[in-house]
Write a structure and sequence with these properties.
202 residues, alpha+beta, six-stranded antiparallel sheet, three-stranded antiparallel sheet, 3 helices, elongated
Length: 202
């Protein structure tokens, strides 16, 4: 069974210098030179926090209030990142990796991205019942007991790494099993009703 892909999303850019002047010469993004360091690569732009807001400068000296999303929330955590205009659906920048950012911006980016990902982790599978190709799961998660319907497992399951799978249920909610090998024996039996744990299909 081949795994499919499934599931962590007009703003006026303004001159940060002008905004700082209007706010009484409020300081702009922290300068590495001020800290005695070398200027970072600006290939991915820069991120910083100011007055409780996340700001992004793509490298042209303009700053915009932003939010960050994994471009592929289910299968691509750690990969491409979308820098979105805060409160908007417009993408400011597409980054192939957080590693394109300077170290401080990368740290801030990973903090922001971790806040946006809320995915229950399945710790025990009580039962999986199959009806007409649909799978009804009764599980225990780190958020408590859950029941959900999984349709078309081949289209709604991804495997980010060899011992992790992510399921997307019929309502669009995502659940993670990691490590799969850490499930108890009874849970693995139920898991096998849908997947082959160590086989080539998973």
């Amino acid at each position: 069974m081949a795994l499919g892909s499934a599931r962590r999303f007009p703003h006026d850019l303004h001159s940060h210098d002008a905004a700082a002047s209007a706010a009484g010469d409020r300081p702009g993004p922290p300068s590495p030179e001020d800290a005695g360091g070398k200027p970072p690569s600006r290939a991915g732009g820069r991120l910083w926090r100011e007055d409780g807001k996340l700001l992004y400068d793509c490298g042209d000296g303009n700053a915009a209030s932003a939010r960050l999303l994994w471009a592929r929330p289910l299968s691509g955590r750690g990969g491409p990142v979308s820098v979105m205009a805060a409160g908007k659906k417009r993408e400011i920048r597409y980054l192939e990796s957080p590693d394109l950012l300077d170290p401080e911006s990368r740290r801030i980016a990973l903090e922001e991205l971790s806040r946006g990902v809320v995915m229950p982790r399945i710790t025990r599978i009580h039962s999986v019942t199959s009806r007409f190709g649909n799978f009804y799961w009764n599980v225990e998660t780190d958020f408590g007991p859950k029941t959900f319907l999984l349709t078309s497992p081949e289209n709604n399951t991804v495997r980010p790494d060899p011992d992790t799978i992510v399921l997307k249920d019929a309502s669009g909610n995502a659940f993670e099993i990691t490590p799969v090998s850490g499930l108890d024996r009874a849970s693995l039996r139920e898991f096998d009703r849908v997947y082959t744990v160590h086989g080539p299909e998973l």
